[in-house]
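Item description
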Amino acid sequence: MSKRDLKKYLTGLDKDQIEEQFLALYDKFPDVKTYYDFVFHPKEEKLVGEARVKISNEYFPTKTRRAKLRRSTAQKIIKHFLMLGVEPHAVADVMLFAIEVAQKYTARREVRSATFYKSMHKSFEQAVDYTIAQGIVGDFNDRITSIAERAASQQWDNVWDFERTVSRI
């Protein structure tokens, strides 16, 4: 159904019928409930705090002994933030935090998987692109350059990719 068809359908309904439709959506789909809960009570600080804990647990778990090192956990959180319409500074903060935690982990333990470093660069590139697109790169410039410098000091295999990405800003 196109937006035009939906608009036509909604104009044919009275106010009570539209309210019933929204309530049915709210009850039936958890994503709709989550969205409206966020719209009416945006607790971005709480969301960012929870996201930081989840990302940290991927590298420094509190319940298990072994780190999982999954980039996908951070990506799911970021995608959820974008769906909700979270403020761009909070999204960029979480994007960069995920890379910084991974760097703290690699400072303590060596990771031999080339795919790990490749995925970290992809996350870094996405974070830089996002900050540029949102016009907030100046606010995060220090953290971005710090990440690239840490990649060099930790002798990551793809340090040149990080430097090339930083040179774009």
Summary: The mean pLDDT is 92. Residues 1-41 form one domain.
